[in-house]
Amino acid sequence: MPNIVQFSAPRSVELVDCDQQQLMPGTVRIRTWYSGISAGTELTAYRGSNPYLTKTWDVERRLFTEGAPSFSYPVAGWGYSEVGEVVEAAPDVSGVAVGDVVYGIWGHRSEAVLNAQAVAGKQIPPGLDPLHGIFARVGAIALNAVLGANLHLGEDTAIFGQGVIGLLATRLAHLSGARVIAVDGFEARRALALAMGAHDVVAADTPAGAGQQIRDLTGQAGVDVAIDLSGSYRALHEAVRSVGVDGRVIAAGFYQGGGGHLSLGEEFHHNRVRIIASQIGGTPANLGARWTPARLVTVFMGQLAAGAVDVAPLITDVVDASEVAEAFRRLDDGAPETLQTVLRFDGAPER
Fold it and tell me: Is the confidence at residue 161, as pLDDT, over 80?
């Protein structure tokens, strides 16, 4: 019987049995090999802090309102970083064949039936480790933030938060020609940021604040643009402090609760700083209609296939899906040595 990861209650997650989905015209059945855990979005479901669990998301008005939550426990099927093998295809399917190894979004489940068009063109490129396909979505998130920063050759940028997405953003910003200052509270992650192309690193917990240290590194001018991927209001405030007059801050983290550490009457107000949201549901408006979330994925996977981005150092834990509870506990503890955790399902190749 197929199984699926379920958040049963705050800080309670388990692998449970589920019904097998029926193959329909135009669909394929995929047996999951690997599924990456998002240490941002999914931890909000694990901890119970996700706004969807406490408020109603009004799709038409695009507002969170008081009322019945959009989701309630138990919540199953979260996850957006999957790789698997096509094991069955409806007779009318083209562009995807049985035996193809594809990447996409179908949640932490042992198998899924998807519209074939959802994975058409998403075969793992020849020569690429299939495990690395789980970075397609998180890589797109990082690329979206970097594109939102509108970086130019020779500009200075500070990237706050050197988790998986932050490290990918550091690499992509470096490839874009920017001089990157990477900020994180963990020495090991700062060292990895240097390997990904950062020019300088700054400790997030410095007494004077990371913003002041960044100013010192830039001759007090501040960086042209800062990107926050930490999801911390304190980091967002330091990002505001790090940019120069009329500077830009890309807020790309998933912030939870109120912003007690964000003081908008200080540098934000006096330096006329612009805070711009970045979220994978859309691409930067200035890029026009040619850039879509799907193109973000294609471009990032092209960088992987070309060897311009190396994600191997980011994979720290590959565990059997049955160990999902322990995997989330370690992520919740915030150990600095834990970056990308991957669930391995039955049938995945031996490594």
Answer: yes
- CB distance 257 to 284 below 8 Å: no
Please determine, for residue 351, whether its predicted confidence score (pLDDT) is greater than 80. no
343-347 mean pLDDT: 95
The answer to whether residue 27 scores a pLDDT higher than 90 is yes
Per the structure, the count of domains in the chain is 2
Average pLDDT of every residue of the chain? 95
Question: Quick check: helix, strand or coil at residue 184?
Answer: strand
| CATH number of the domain residue 335 falls in | 3.90.180.10
Measured CA distances, 173 to 182, 184, 312, 315 (Å): 11, 16, 19, 21
Domain of 244, in residue numbers: 151-283
Is pLDDT above 90 for 342? yes
Asked if residue 226 belongs to a domain, the reply is yes
Residue type, 33: W
pTM for the whole thing? 0.95
Within 10 angstroms of residue 48's Cβ, the number of other Cβ atoms is: 14
* Cα dihedral: 102, 289, 311, 318 (round 10): -50
Q: Are residues 275 and 332 in the same domain?
A: no
The CA distance from 340 to 163, in Å, is: 8
Instruction: With beta carbons less than 8 A apart as the criterion, state whether 27 and 116 touch.
Output: yes
